[in-house]
Amino acid sequence: MNFPVYMKRCLVRFTIVLLIYASFERGSNENHNRMIRRFLPKGTKQTTAEAVLKIETWMNRYPRKMFKYQTPFQMFKGG
């Protein structure tokens, strides 16, 4: 591999790493974290599989603006 191609790959990886930490560019991720925090406050050490399943089900049945107020479950089923 020649040097310019190697540097280009390194710069792309470096840019991606920098952008990952910009919360304003990860809107969906931050929104999902906020939804999870309704059930599990920050700093929660332990949880059960049942609690995680409850949160997962609730999130999949929560209507989203990006899906024209359909739920992810409806979109998955072909809504």
Automatic annotation (TrEMBL):
GO terms for cellular component: cytosol. One of its GO terms (biological process) is transposition. SUPFAM superfamilies: Ribonuclease H-like (SSF53098). GO terms for molecular function: transposase activity. PANTHER family: TRANSPOSASE (PTHR10948), TRANSPOSASE INSI FOR INSERTION SEQUENCE ELEMENT IS30A-RELATED (PTHR10948:SF23). This is IS30 family transposase.
